[in-house]
Design brief:
Length: 235
């Protein structure tokens, strides 16, 4: 800092710094200190919002530039909040295996599972001889499935997925089982008959095969579904 040309100073000597100048110097020193120990790309609390400002997700503060944010991370408020979060997560038994971003232990790290690819599968078209309903039978092979894990099934609308442009004519059957990649099957957007015997899943622990049967409701059932006084078709 330049201490010359201040009120009360002698030529060639240093004067008393103003409050604003002292604060500016302190922020600059804190910023340089933070740059030596912090990588903003790895800071979980650093966030750049849509207007170009920088936010601290831990302290809920807004900063005009990265230098201001870095100075904030070395301040009492941020350090106190870090210590509180570390203490709380330690009490909850979290973050035992991870070191904190700013030298504090207790920041939880999400476990990353290595995906081993898609399972083998087979799809067979089927038809109920009594109701004339059409359906599909899925067979998926999970030879390396994690012990104790049972595949999970979910139906997804066209607007939930992010792979293709949404189309009202289709829906998706999603099957997930660690450590395999999640499989998605594109189906017609017909209503699924969820009555017992029409829709079922089964996992064979011995052969590691997962079976899913779905039956689509007929046009008549879809049209008159829920109409009072109309009995549903019997399987």
């Amino acid at each position: 800092m330049d201490y010359q040309n201040r009120a009360g100073s002698k030529f060639g000597g240093g004067g008393v710094a103003s409050q604003s100048a002292s604060n500016a110097d302190r922020r600059e020193r804190l910023r340089k200190l933070a740059l030596e120990s912090i990588d903003l790309d790895k800071d979980p609390y650093f966030f750049k919002n849509h207007v170009g400002s920088f936010e601290c997700r831990l302290c809920l503060t807004v900063h005009q530039n990265d230098g201001s944010y870095l100075a904030h991370t070395q301040g009492r408020k941020h350090q106190t909040n870090l210590a509180r979060r570390a203490a709380r997560e330690q009490r909850e038994g979290k973050g035992q295996d991870a070191a904190g971003m700013h030298g504090f232990a207790g920041v939880q790290v999400k476990k990353q599972l290595i995906k081993i690819g898609r399972p083998g599968y087979k799809i067979t078209k089927i038809q109920d001889p009594l109701t004339r309903q059409q359906g599909l039978l899925f067979q998926l092979l999970y030879q390396e499935i994690t012990p104790g894990v049972v595949p999970r099934v979910r139906f997804m609308s066209a607007y939930e997925q992010k792979i293709e442009e949404p189309d009202n004519n289709y829906q998706y059957l999603v099957v997930a089982a660690e450590p395999y990649q999640t499989c998605g099957f594109k189906l017609q957007a017909k209503e699924i008959d969820r009555r017992e015997g029409q829709y079922w899943t089964w996992f064979d622990e011995d052969s590691k095969e997962f079976w899913v049967q779905i039956m689509f409701k007929t046009e008549r059932e879809e049209r008159f579904s829920g109409v009072p006084g109309l009995a549903p078709m019997q399987a």
